[in-house]
Amino acid sequence: MTITSAPAPLMTLADVAALAQVQRPVVSMWRRRKAESAQPFPAPAVLEEGREYFDQASVVEWLLATALGNNPAVAEDAAMFVALDALGSAERPTALAGLTSLLAVKALTGEELSARSAAELLELADDVDPADAFVYSEIDALGESAPDWAARADAMAAAAYTPSAALAALDAMRVRLGMHVAGATALDARAADFVARIVATVLGVEGPAAIVAATGATSTLGRARARFLEGAEPEVLLPLARSAAGRHAHRLLAGAGWSTRVVGGDLLEQVPTGSVLYAQFPSPELVDASDAQVLEAVEELALSMRDEDRAVVVAPASGLVQATTPALAQARAAVLRTGRVRAVLLLPAGCWPAHPRQRLAIWVLGSAHPGVPVERRWVTVAEPDSAALDEPRVEDVVTDVLAALGDERAVRAHAFRYARVVGTSDLVATRGDLVGPPDVTRARAQIDSVAAALRVEEAAARVSVPVVPFGVEVEHHEPGPRPTTTLGALVRDKAVRRVAGSRIAAEDIEDGGSGAVVLGVAELMGDSPRGARTVDRLTLAGSYPSSRYTQPGDVVFCTSPTPRAFVDTDGVCVVASPARVLRLTESAPAGLLPEVLAQAIRAAPPGEPWRSWRVPLVPDAQAPVLQDALERSAQVRADLQARLAALDDATTTLTDAVACGALALTSARADVSTEKEG
Asked: For residue 501, what are the contacts with CB-CB under 8 A and spacing of at least 6?
């Protein structure tokens, strides 16, 4: 259907809570307590099926006037909290598809959309989607209301910082907005990142010409985009989507920055040599494929491959690994006989949120190695546990997969951490579970003696490098009055801006990983080293659209259990509430330095209100000199911490390697390196 007009932006109470960065019951408390005051909470603008919707402009004005909540940027962030579910059930899919299409066009073109007419927006859509594969029809369906939705898309992109982040945020709302098909086929964040990592790693084996999305676009491929440098990513070839969910997945892929090309006809017959094929079951285009249909599709994919091609297949383990019926076992054996299945991984339960108890499996396909006799052909099988999907173990799993794609010599030389090598003929003859129960003898990590020796030598060399010198020249003077102020006065005078931390759910914070670094009370209190905790950037954009990255020089602090603070010298981190940020503004006096502010907080008495904390001001002439000394001090501290980490690594590696016999010490003298050099 065509939408005649875009409704005024509305919000639910849950949207208000998310915008204000408070819990949902807090908003109800505000309504109750402020009901008889001079500033009552805005009245509902719409009542739809017993649910209240509030005018967004009125809510923003009320939050600014009352100064309630923890988000100082409510006006800027408000666009990300529009209740699209306030639309009628018939209009909602059209509006959502049109809005995501406009964001995809904006991501691809970098153009402002607000000032364009409906015809101009269609012309722009035609430029990026001449085959009407993913955005043209959706924008056309907005009719004359397209400019209004375009203005909303611009506002959402500004609030989320990028169109891609706004797209990801809308996708995260898919269940609430009725996008049930997309939600039913999506992998959970950790599993999707793991699969994306395998795809990106396999891409580097032969320098493929393209990624071929054999089963259509998926959000998993979107995550793989972050693993390539700008301009270095391969092209993604796609079949023409036949469903609304498939077109939506294509929009997410294009919005994530992939260069996509729709291929008509039989996609598998048009694969460029050296490509990587990715197939996911279910996918937005193939929601209800049976295990038999999955195996038939995988066999067709395997038979279409050349020795230069690679493939990654994700599907329910009931077909790929367990094969619970004789017919499925026979169909699976037919694929294994092609000789192209190189690695089989059984993922832990919970990787498919729509079916949390059903396990998924991954097959990685490569060269059939026709020069290797049939009796010596191999497949690696593995059952990584949940912890193996996180850093640092995930690197071992991916390395095992990469080794499995090598030739016979490389496979025999590799010390597999999680996988074991099984003869292909043995797997073909298997009628049950390909992976089988975990082999307890493999719970103990295998240690590569050469790698261990190199690791110890590298750590020893790092520790032995001369220490970075640190020195200062000082003059003695009679001390005078020490100028100080209070943190409350600095905030009041707008010399310092206080920025609230983001309320990030514990389950979204990962140990290690390549996401945004999380800084919080754990880092401030020394319970967790900086950089050890991360949050996936797509999760951050989708689930926490009002979160903000730190800037270099920000002071991260907390008030309890005791005052603690440090300076984030690099920026681009996420501060987790209840920790907060103090940011010096252009109005800050020259004698106010971030490290001095952090030190003053660390010296503050526990229990004293933060507004009363005393902050010393450095004489203006001394400020740049002290800043330079503090920066050099930080460099020396980082160098010493790196040396300690290297020494710890050497100690652990040496102990493990000697204990299992992989290494034998020939000298434990302190001057061994000196003697060798002499």
From this structure: 520, 575, 576, 577, 578, 579, 580, 581
